[in-house]
Design a protein that fits this description.
CATH architecture of the largest domain in chain A: 2-Layer Sandwich
CATH superfamily of the largest domain in chain A: Aldehyde oxidase/xanthine dehydrogenase, molybdopterin binding domain
Shape of chain A: globular
Largest sheet of chain A: 7 strands, mixed
CATH topology of the largest domain in chain A: Aldehyde Oxidoreductase, domain 4
Helix content of chain B: 25-40%
Strand content of chain A: 25-35%
CATH architecture of one domain in chain B: 2-Layer Sandwich
Distance between the termini of chain B: 56 Å
Helix content of chain A: 25-40%
Number of helices of chain B: 12
Radius of gyration of chain B: 20 Å
Structural class of chain B: alpha+beta
Strand content of chain B: 15-25%
CATH superfamily of one domain in chain B: CO dehydrogenase flavoprotein, C-terminal domain
Structural class of chain A: alpha+beta
Bound molecules: flavin-adenine dinucleotide, iron/sulfur cluster
Oligomer: heterodimer
Shape of chain B: globular
Number of strands of chain B: 11
Order of helices and strands of chain B: EHEHEEEHHHHHHEEHEEEEHHH
Strand order of the largest sheet of chain B: 4-5-8-6-7
Largest interface: A-B, 40 and 36 residues
């Protein structure tokens, strides 16, 4: 039985706070943690499947053109080689997140250097990899593919455009104004587990073990790509070794494995090499951004401008949503916002953790620091003065707003010195030391979700959904929600995820996973509670459950009388989305040291204070925050995709040369979780948290660099060469 | 990876014999070679495993120096009490490289022979004169941030990426090499070559020659510094590095052995740089003069132009640190 709940009104009943088990919010360790650290949790490529052949993708060595011939004979005689697959249904790109349709197919048409064009299948991985390098391919190359985003006429994105009042006039009249242009380089998700799939046919039924974030969309994407019915497909992703957006849509290896398995009549495994993952999946677009801020003599904004140029392949719908939080973070009645996309032939641009804010917030918050200096007030104070009463562009209230609390609590916990902020006030040996801060904001997203909860006759519970756990803690928080609602120790709750046999969840992406699927589990549990209350003869509102018993001592097993009680919860976001602007907010504080001679920057300590609704598990929540802050360090200092200027190929495509922060770069990080209940966000009053921790953090570091050594940089990442170039003598 | 034959060399003579063949490479820790084989940058038909040949010890030599077995691991070398006490610049250089896991596996011989990290060298679908003579250099006019500013040629601008050999050059160590023509010693300063017209030749090893050890001279004392500038604090190759052994007598430089990493196709040792310091009291002007000599012929390729001022400043920092209190 399915129970449908559509949320049209805020739910401020905070029912979960009245439950008696007392496990929600507790810092429980991840349920699957032991299996993961002991190597017994199977990842996509690790399922032991008999008679499995190995496929390796062959990728293009031209930028744009057509594959005119593939000489199969060049490899079919090599040892162990079984087949060369170049089916027209193969995908040349991964699907964009929530695309819900097949990604671009037709591998003969080449659109970027490194695009998959065929698959070689052999008995062993080594044989397939060797043969893939030997496959003779001929192309008809089309010269002159545009590669430089700044050298083409970009397309405007109408729905992102805002013209309100007269910004030029406001800038001219302002007591203080800032007009600066920033650049950010591309980023890779660089998840630990490479993209992998094993496909297996049984008649016309297909099973694929894959590493994917959103099975609910992926099954539709795969069905469309293969031109088959969803009913005949089963996707399994029980454990995902990191996604960060790169596994939102089905990618090339999934479709290729399915086609190859069909062609040779055997299961086929395809694992992308580290280089292929970098080169074929998704990049975060590089950006160029102009920020204009007009303020009165007190620093109150009268004008706000943010224009961004991003890029993508021709035909891709995704445009890095750089302005997402700029629309509502600060006031200023004269507004000019604009997003443009340059069509160029680099690999696909798509979602990488915190699409939009990850690069939009660091520039906006850098510009705010420049403004604070001009106005001559503390940067925390500048933010406080500019928190709008309501959404400055739409006539909407905020569902709740924790920015001021985060700024104050964060400043307090960090020991922020709100005295005069002149650069170069502290030096230790060769190192300039300084501090900086920035606001955090990340729009709240929520999605439709279904989950089945079964209260078993033996007094344990089972939660089933095709939702994934990409390392974030979904298994654990769902056991906590069900445990809290049903009065069970979470150990008594078995959570089954990542299998399309289960009800459709929301998928992991856009930070919406926990709030969306948590709400579906909540809805299902609530109805189960109603059934139990009926049996006891009281109303659900007063039913108290803990340790498998009611307040009057009746056990769940007795109440169930030998029967399982199963309900499917179906949560759907309703009209409420049109009534409020909902967002997570926060504040970052950083202390850095900059070497006077070499321009090297090291972060000494960093603190983030975040308000993101109800904390479901203080440990997994904190992990998301400190993970986000770690990514902020990468955005600020080290991460940059480098593309060849002549053919557009990604050059630094492994973990040695694409510099994510390493342990020594990640200092003492503290996360302050600012308690909040946002009834408009979800029935469980939770919001997203997975991305908030990196939405602006890079600016706290950039602002600290300036405070430390006086080098004001407008280009991320702030590598030693750039810091030195801006370093005053 | 091309299928290959694996042979465990039973003796040094046999190892020489095997690696004299065109299609055979020696494998020690494999941390560099196997990565390159997976990418088909290296495609040997046979690997001769030299790991059991025995030259893995670290021993005192008669002249008071130390002999590092070519098969001793980077970790064993860096933590060896005598290396730490008498050759701190070496210990620090090794520890500044790669990661603990890699250093546990990497050998001293393999470290000397590690190949460049040039992006175009490691991508077989791109031109590279070093990998495929005559195919062109992808890095010139390409992404060349890591590339060389000294001793380049119009054929190749790659750097030797290692750290250990930079310290060895400053120390004046010698590589001990064994081949079918017998044994020879080559100063580490002369071990690596400049690219010239033959960028595929990276060092003086002849076919069949195997490095068996590295001889360190008797301890020289002084203030020893290894300074590595990099984009993140670990697990990154040097943008610029400086190995320095500095001694002052009566407030004047009496020893200044300097070598540089990240600047050229080899650890860069220009004797004129140290020499200009000798007999002089430390001063900013003197440090600048040393940098002028070092960088006299430096040439950037756009993206790596920054290495010129960075090398100057890093040298400045190292000399200031080594002479602190004396200036
Ligand atoms: C991600 C990464 C980061 C790294 N970062 C750094 C760094 O920051 N600094 C640094 O210095 N290094 C760094 N390294 C390189 C590392 O130090 C080398 O890979 C290692 O030292 C090579 O030693 P090996 O024994 O594994 O050599 P192998 O891989 O076994 O061999 C390398 C080469 O040397 C030859 N060879 C090996 N031994 C001998 C011998 N005795 N005589 C003749 N030829 C021989 C082999 O034939 C082969 O061509 C890094 C490596 C990786 C993978
Ligand atoms: S710099 Fe040297 S190694 Fe790099 S592409 Fe050019 S020739 Fe090859």
């Amino acid at each position: 039985m399915t129970v449908h709940f559509k949320q049209d009104e805020p739910d401020n009943s905070n029912r979960l706070d009245g439950m008696k088990q007392g496990v929600l919010g507790e810092p429980l360790p991840r349920i699957e943690g032991l299996a993961k650290v002991t190597g017994t949790a199977p990842y996509a490529a690790e399922y032991p499947i008999e008679n499995c052949a190995e496929g390796v993708l062959v990728t293009s060595t031209i930028t744009r053109g057509k594959v005119t011939s593939i000489d199969r004979r060049s490899v079919l005689s090599m040892p162990g080689v079984i087949a060369v697959v170049d089916d027209e249904k193969m995908c040349t790109r991964a699907a964009q997140g929530t695309a819900n349709e097949a990604p671009t197919q037709g591998p003969k048409q080449v659109c970027y250097w490194g695009q998959p064009i065929a698959l070689v299948v052999a008995e062993t991985f080594e044989q397939a990899r060797d043969a893939a390098k030997h496959l003779k391919v001929e192309y008809r190359e089309e010269d002159g593919a545009p590669l430089d985003p700044n050298a083409v006429e970009p397309e405007g994105q109408e729905d992102e455009t805002v013209h309100q009042g007269d910004l030029a006039h406001a800038m001219a009249e302002a007591a203080h104004n800032v007009d600066v242009t920033y650049t950010t380089k591309g980023h890779a998700s660089a998840a630990m587990e490479p993209h992998a799939a094993i496909a297996q046919w049984d008649g016309d039924k297909l099973t694929v073990h894959a590493s994917l974030q959103m099975l609910n969309y992926n099954i539709t994407e795969l069905a469309e790509a293969l031109d088959m019915e969803e009913e005949n497909i089963r996707l399994v992703s029980r454990f995902v070794g990191g996604g960060f957006g790169s596994k939102l849509g089905i990618s090339e290896e999934v479709v290729a494995a399915a086609l190859a398995a069909k062609q040779i009549g055997r299961p086929v495994r395809v694992v992308q090499s580290r280089q292929q993952v970098f080169q074929t999946v998704m990049r975060r677009s590089e950006t160029t951004q102009r920020l204009r801020l007009a303020a009165d003599s007190d620093g109150k904004l009268t004008g706000f401008g943010h224009e961004a140029l991003v890029s993508n392949l021709p035909g891709e719908s995704f445009a890095e949503p750089v302005l997402q939080s700029s629309h509502f973070l600060y006031g200023g009645e004269n507004r000019e916002l604009m997003l443009k996309v340059a069509r160029i032939h680099r690999m696909t641009a798509g979602s990488v953790r915190a699409p939009g804010e990850a690069v939009g917030m660091p520039t906006l918050e850098g510009a705010m620091d420049v403004l604070a200096e001009k106005v001559g007030i503390d940067p925390v104070e500048l933010r406080l003065r500019n928190i709008p009463e309501q959404d400055p562009e739409e006539d909407l209230p905020f569902s709740s707003h924790k920015l001021a609390d985060c700024l104050k609590q964060g400043a307090e916990a960090f020991g922020w010195d709100n005295g005069p902020r002149k650069p170069r006030r502290r030096r230790e040996g060769e190192w300039w030391i300084g501090t900086g801060m920035a606001s955090a904001a990340r729009v709240h997203n929520i999605a439709e979700a279904k989950a089945r909860v079964t209260l078993k006759a033996d007094g344990t519970a089972l939660v089933e959904t095709d939702m994934t756990d990409i390392g974030t803690g979904t298994y654990t928080i769902l056991a906590q929600i069900a445990g809290e609602m049903l009065g069970l120790d979470p150990k008594q709750v078995l959570v089954e995820l990542g299998d399309t046999r289960h009800p459709r969840g929301p998928g992991s992406g856009g930070s919406w996973g926990a709030a969306s699927i948590g709400s579906a589990v909540y809805v299902a549990c609530k109805v189960i509670r109603e059934e139990l209350a009926k049996k006891v003869g009281i109303s659900e509102e007063v039913l108290e459950l803990s340790e498998g018993k009611t307040a009057t001592g009746e056990s769940l097993t007795d109440l169930l009388e030998g029967n399982d009680l199963a309900r499917e919860g179906h949560y759907e976001p309703g009209d409420i989305e049109d009534d409020y602007t909902a967002s997570g907010f926060g504040a970052f504080f950083a202390e850095v040291r900059v070497n006077h001679y070499t321009g090297e920057t090291r972060v000494d300590r960093m603190l983030g204070a975040f308000g993101f609704g109800r904390v479901l598990n203080a440990k997994t929540a904190r992990s998301q925050c400190i993970g986000g802050i770690t990514w902020s360090i990468g955005v600020a200092l080290t991460e940059a995709l480098e593309f060849d200027p002549r053919d557009g190929h990604l050059v630094n495509c492994d973990l040695a040369e694409y510099h994510v922060p390493v342990h020594r770069d990640v200092p003492d990080i503290e996360a302050v979780l600012v308690e909040e209940r946002d009834g408009a966000a979800s029935p469980i009053q939770a919001k997203g948290i997975g991305e908030l921790g990196m939405c602006g953090g890079a600016a706290a570091i950039a602002n600290a660099i300036y405070n430390a050594c006086g080098a004001r940089l407008y280009d991320y990442p702030m590598t030693p060469d750039r810091v030195l170039a801006a370093m005053p003598d | 990876m091309r299928p290959f034959q694996y042979t465990r060399a039973p003796s040094l003579t046999e190892a020489s014999h095997l690696t004299a063949g065109e299609d055979t490479l020696a494998i020690a820790g494999g941390t560099n070679l196997l990565d390159l084989m997976k990418l088909q940058v290296e495609t040997p038909g046979q690997l001769a495993d030299i790991n059991r040949l025995g030259f893995a010890d670290i021993e005192n030599t008669d002249d008071g120096g130390l002999r590092l077995g070519a098969l001793a691991t980077n970790t064993e070398t860096a933590v060896h009490p005598r290396v730490r006490a008498d050759y701190p610049v070496l210990s620090r250089a090794i520890l500044a490289g790669a990661t603990q896991q890699l250093r546990n596996k990497a050998t001293n011989g393999g470290n000397l022979c590690q190949r460049t990290r040039c992006f175009y060298f490691t991508n077989i679908d791109q031109p590279c004169n070093k990998r495929k003579p005559g195919s062109g250099c992808g890095a010139i006019d390409g992404v060349a941030k890591l590339h060389a500013i000294l001793g380049t040629s119009d054929q190749c601008i790659a750097t030797y990426p290692g750290d250990m050999a930079v310290a060895l050059s400053a120390l004046g160590a010698e590589a001990r090499i064994s081949g079918d023509k017998g044994e020879r010693n080559v100063p580490v300063r002369d071990f690596h070559c400049l690219p010239g017209d033959t960028p595929w030749i990276e060092n003086v090893l002849e076919p069949g020659e195997v490095i068996t050890g590295i001889a360190l001279p008797a301890p020289v004392g002084g203030t020893q510094i290894y300074r590595k500038v990099r984009e993140r604090s670990s697990y990154a190759f040097a943008l610029v590095s400086v190995a320095a052994i500095i001694e002052l007598t009566d407030g004047k430089f009496s020893r200044a052995d300097l070598a540089f990493g990240g600047l050229a196709h080899k650890p860069w040792h220009d004797p004129r740089v140290g020499k200009c310091l000798l007999g002089q009291p430390p001063s900013d002007a003197l440090f600048d003069k040393a940098a002028d000599i070092l960088l006299e012929d430096a040439r950037g390729f756009g993206e790596n132009d920054f290495k010129i001022p960075l090398a100057r400043r890093t040298l400045h920092s190292v000399l200031a640190q080594a002479t602190e209190g004396a200036a």
